[in-house]
Amino acid sequence: MSDRKKIQKIFEYTGIIGRSATDGTIKTCRFIRQDKIKTANGMEYVFRIPLGVPSKKIEMLNNDVGIFKDGLHKDVETEFKSGMLHVFVYEDQLPTKWLYTKLIPQLKPGTWKIPVGMTYKGLVWHDFDKIPHTVMGGTTRYGKTIGLKSIMTSLVLSNPDDVEFYIIDLKRKLEFGKYEKLEQVREVAGTPEEALKMLNGLKDRYDKVMDYFHDNDLSNIVETDIKKRIFVIVDEANRLVPKTRNDKIQLACQTILEDISSVSGGLGVRLIFCTQYPVGTTLPRDIKQNSDAKMSFRLQTGKASEVVLGDGNTHAAHLKDIPGRCVAVHGPNLLEMQVPLISDRVMKHLLQNWYRTKRKDVTDWRDESEGENIIEFIPSGGSK
User: Fold this and answer.
1) In terms of Cα–Cα distance, which of 300, 283, 281 is closest to 291?
2) Residue 89 near residue 3 (C-beta atoms within 8 A)
3) pLDDT beyond 60 at 381
């Protein structure tokens, strides 16, 4: 049986689309055409979705894309355009590793649209002016922090004079403390107490911006000539979760972060909220609902995957055991992609021109084994 016929049989056997309200027969998608995929070894099958099928059913097709993979024994992606369901069936496997340095020529200086990963069809781009806030989940050592560093590097290279970072690194600045001296980094907090102090200062700042917007009849920064954008990155957010009502510092931090996700996107503040232990309490509802972009690396359970990606979406629990492999949700579409690999040595070299004080531990990344996960041991007392 051809892949096309298998897909149609899967529609019939699973009843994903639903049943007719008149005679109870199973609805199915009507085959329109098939084309070879130009950028990958595979085939694209296009089906027309029956009239009257609610959008929730379309989202369920994304959640159930694993059914197509299991039935075809191949990697499959789905996409929705103008009432059509596009099913991409690939003969080859997604690359398990690709280097950040390969995408540098693709960056678009002066824009907030940056590449965040690679699929079979090429680079996946995220425009922070269109989708301000992002939720990111993933078990430790599966690439979440590498993905963050890739995004941060691209933002600096694309907008060195207009991007600012406020970073909450609750591993006591282990991952991002080394970048405190970057011109674009305003503050790095390593404890809840430092985080609250930083967030209070940021809130005072964007409250003044809001007053300016009110006075000048403005509502969204993208409609102005203001180029500055502020990124708030929260890594290991589970350590910022209040365990009781007496955890006033954590509660205050959470309130400000929810406020940022709710009202500050139009003021030019973008939130990237990351957690390695996603449950309802570690991912506040307001932040999740206001973050239209969601990325999840491998997680241990289907429930944890649903917390990040949405109800019924257990994809992150079934990802292959490959560091850097993640699932991304943009609107109704779901993508499996590989994020670029960037080591601290490469990142320091690419950003060395923007350190307030010249780092003595920066060496040319081309002198090293390119693409490997390098752990740097800086002698105690050594200067940054």
Assistant:
1) 283
2) yes
3) no
Residue 342 CA to residue 348 CA, distance in Å, equals 10
- What per-residue confidence (pLDDT) applies to 345? 94
CB atoms within 10 A of CB 155: 22
Say how far apart CA 136 and CA 276 lie, in whole Å.
9
Average pLDDT score, the chain? 84
User: Given the structure tokens 């009781």, which residue do they identify?
Assistant: 244
Tell me whether residue 375 is in a domain: no
The parent domain of residue 46 ranges over: 3-90
CATH code: domain of residue 164: 3.40.50.300
Co-location of 72 and 126 in the same domain: no
Please give the pLDDT value at position 313.
81
Tokens representing 71?
A: 């039935």
Give the gyration radius of the chain's Cα atoms. 22
* pLDDT level of residue 371 (50, 70, 90 thresholds): very low
CATH classification of the domain holding 25: 3.30.70
